[in-house]
Amino acid sequence: MMQEQAADPEAVYRAMNVDATMRLAEQAAAQGVRRFIFVSSVKVNGEHTLSQPFRANDPPAPEDAYGRSKLAAELALQAWAARTGTELVIVRPPLVYGPGVRANFLRLMQLVKSGVPLPLGNVRNSRSVVALGNLVDFLLLCASHPGAAGATWMVSDNRDLSLPELITLIATAMGRPARLLPVPTGLLAAGASLLGRRAAAGRLLDSLQVDVRPALDRLGWTPPLDVETGIRLAVAPLLNPYPIADQ
Questions:
Q1: Can you give the residue ranges of the NAD-dependent epimerase/dehydratase domain (predicted)?
Q2: Are the C-beta atoms of residues 209 and 160 closer than 8 Å to each other?
Q3: Looking at residue 204, what DSSP letter applies?
Q4: Which domains, ranges and CATH numbers included, belong to the chain?
């Protein structure tokens, strides 16, 4: 939730991400499930990176209720796995995009589609993202690969993008020009702070990278979708929201 409405967000997130997850885990163990895969979040690590990408063994530093609930679930599942003997795999994806994506990514695509000039041409950040198809492929690998169990994995498309690069890819997939204005990022950040939107601006302006090399090297994983294909799949519903079924 980008604009949190709950009176006690910590309790709401814990009810879903911790309590419900643990009930499912207990039922899975009772049914003899040998391996349990938990889709966590890069937010367990934090909200932005500086000199190096987040790694799975970095000290956790969640900054919001969602990230804290995901970390609490990871810790509870690790204790549960040790008690039940179930193999546990934890996956921490960054932003997931694809058909049906919502929130900030959807709003960004809608802005690009509208043709409104965006004052983001000077942004020089680097962000990891993962296409839905790539995340699903990685989860399927984690379900069967002997080396996946008992570990936490970062996953991405293995190609980090600046915000202008992402906008340009979206525009290209839509057959539209990327209308980017070179406004200084310091001015954008200052304006966002004055409006009380610094956190929202950070999701656009800051870098957030994950180290996907262990998944590539230790599990032999290769993302099946390149970024261009992933973006085309994500924008397709906006270009043709009511596809005509094949006759």
A1: 4-148
A2: yes
A3: H
A4: 9-239 (3.40.50.720)
Q: What is the pTM of this model?
A: 0.90
Strands 87-92, 95-97: pairing is unpaired
Residue 176: exposed, middle, or buried by beta-carbon count in 10 A (0-12, 13-18, 19+)?
A: middle
| Spatial separation of the C-alpha atoms in residues 40 and 56, rounded to whole Å | 11
Residue 66 designated active-site: yes
Read off the DSSP letter of residue 56. Answer: T
Residue with tokens 């193999």: 87
Catalytic residue among 13, 66, 97, 242: 66
Residue with tokens 């209308």: 179
Burial of 89 from C-beta contacts in 10 A (0-12 / 13-18 / 19+):
buried
CA distance 115 to 108: 11
The tens place of each residue's pLDDT in the chain, 247 residues long, gives 545 566 788 899 999 999 999 999 999 999 999 999 999 999 999 999 998 999 999 999 999 999 999 999 999 999 999 999 999 999 999 999 999 999 889 999 999 999 999 999 999 999 999 999 999 999 999 999 999 999 999 999 999 999 999 999 999 999 999 999 999 888 888 877 766 766 766 778 899 999 999 999 999 999 999 999 999 999 999 998 776 655 4
